[in-house]
Structure formats: structure tokens, C-alpha cells
């Protein structure tokens, strides 16, 4: 587990020098563009810097057979102001994190267990694809479409590190089929036929 720690420190070392030791989030106050206001240092405890939820496997009983557990500032106040966040992804056999982007962050994934096929597509439509096993690490550059598929025979566990406290996310499937974008426009822009579009909209809860 040394690689994730090294990546965290490399991200921190590239940020601007802080004028104070830390700024633990005061979650009783509203979040803003620069993050949460700092908690009174006298009220900060060691528990603000410890988070245990990433040690618990998520429920993969869903359409994609995947569970993502996040460690953002709202769950982990000690991250406030550090310019990073984390997540855990559990993928059952055949599970998939479908094509999506993070508009606000680069992403580093570290394989804890299992085997996955992961990749991203550049703005020149070049595909970068690799099968990853335990101990492997891969980078998804900010804003590029990427995906993960459990291509092994056991559950896969992936640790994720983002270079932003708010990476944002947009899934291609949901953008096309989980809203009220008219089916006719989806058909024209994707070259899918009417039956395929309606089937996908039904699966993802879309209308139109």
C-alpha cells in the first residue's frame, strides 16, 4: 500500500505552500468555492484526520455490479484545503464503471486486488487500454472519457485518488438516456435506432 501514500504526498508537494498547518472543515457552515471554512483549531481532534469507510466493501448488487465509496471533504473534514479526495471502487465479477469524465480532476487508480481492464480516450480519439493486476497503477487525465471493467474471475478492489476535492463526474450513458432529451435527437446524434434508444431510456429511467 506504499504507492497510494506516495501519490498523495506527490500531489500535496505540488500545491502552493499553506499559511497554516491545516484547515479542517467546519461542516456546520456552508461550502464555498474555496472549500469549507476552517474549524476552530481548539476543536480539532485526531478523528478529523482519520476516515475508516474506505475499509468497508460496498454493495455491488446493482445494474453495473459496482460500488463506489467516496472520501470527500463532507465525509473526511481533514481533507479540506488539501486539493485532493479519494474513493474506493468494488467491482463484482463482470462489474463495470461505465464511460465517464471528471471535469475538475486528474485521477490515479491503484489496484488493491483482482484484475481489471481500464482505459481512457484522448481528445484525438486515441485509445489507451491496459489490463491491470494487483499492485498496478494507472492515470486518467482530467476531463477525458475513461472506464473500468472487472475482467477477472474474482471481485476487484480499486483505490482512487483525485487531484481535486470536488472532481465532478458525468456518465455518458446517463447523459444520453437518463433524462428527457428527446429520443429523436438521441437517435440522430448517436445513429442508434428507435428501439435501441427506448430500451436504454427504460433501463436508465429517461423519458422523451
Q: Topology, please?
A:
Blueprint: H1 2-13, E1 66-71, E2 85-91, E3 96-101, E4 107-113, E5 115-121, E6 127-133, E7 137-140, E8 145-150, E9 156-162, E10 170-171, H2 172-177, H3 183-190, H4 194-204
Antiparallel strand pairs: 1-2, 2-9, 3-8, 3-10, 4-7, 4-9, 5-6, 5-8
Pfam families: Cupin_1
Protein name: Germin-like protein
Binding site for Mn(2+): 100, 102, 107, 146
Question: Describe it for me?
Answer:
Belongs to the germin family. With 208 residues, this protein is an alpha+beta fold. Strands 1-2-9-4-7 form a five-stranded antiparallel sheet, with helices on one face. A five-stranded antiparallel sheet has the order 6-5-8-3-10. It starts with a helix and ends with a helix.
Terminal CA distance reads: 47 Å
Strand content: 25-35%
Order of helices and strands: HEEEEEEEEEEHHH
**How can the largest sheet be summarized?**
5 strands, antiparallel
Provide the gyration radius in Å. 19 Å
Q: Which residues form runs of ≥5 with pLDDT under 50?
A: 13-17
Number of discrete domains: 2
* Fourth-level CATH superfamily of the largest domain: Jelly Rolls
How does CATH name the architecture of the largest domain?
Sandwich
The average pLDDT value, as a whole number, equals 90
- The helix/strand class is alpha+beta
How many helices does DSSP assign?
4
Strand line-up in the sheet with most strands: 1-2-9-4-7
Shape: globular
Strand elements, count? 10
Q: Briefly note the CATH topology name of the largest domain.
A: Jelly Rolls
Amino acid at each position: 500500500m506504499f504507492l497510494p501514500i506516495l501519490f498523495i504526498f506527490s500531489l500535496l508537494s505540488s500545491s502552493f505552500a499553506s499559511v497554516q498547518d491545516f484547515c479542517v472543515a467546519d461542516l456546520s457552515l456552508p461550502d464555498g468555492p474555496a472549500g469549507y471554512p476552517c474549524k476552530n483549531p481548539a476543536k480539532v481532534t485526531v478523528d478529523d484526520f482519520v476516515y475508516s469507510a474506505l475499509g468497508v466493501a460496498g454493495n455491488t448488487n446493482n445494474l453495473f455490479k459496482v460500488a463506489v465509496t467516496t472520501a470527500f471533504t463532507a465525509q473526511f473534514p481533514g481533507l479540506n484545503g488539501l486539493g485532493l479526495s479519494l474513493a474506493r471502487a468494488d467491482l463484482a465479477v463482470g462489474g463495470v464503471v461505465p464511460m465517464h469524465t471528471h471535469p475538475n480532476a486528474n485521477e490515479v487508480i491503484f489496484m488493491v486486488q483482482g484484475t481489471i481492464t481500464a482505459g481512457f480516450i484522448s481528445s484525438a480519439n486515441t485509445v489507451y487500454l491496459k489490463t491491470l493486476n494487483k499492485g498496478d497503477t494507472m492515470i486518467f487525465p482530467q476531463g477525458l472519457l475513461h472506464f473500468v471493467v472487472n475482467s477477472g474471475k474474482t471481485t476487484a478492489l480499486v483505490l482512487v485518488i483525485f487531484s481535486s476535492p470536488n472532481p465532478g463526474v458525468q456518465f455518458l450513458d446517463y447523459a444520453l438516456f437518463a433524462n428527457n432529451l428527446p429520443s429523436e435527437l438521441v437517435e440522430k446524434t448517436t445513429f442508434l435506432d428507435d428501439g435501441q434508444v427506448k430500451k436504454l431510456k427504460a433501463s436508465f429511467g429517461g423519458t422523451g
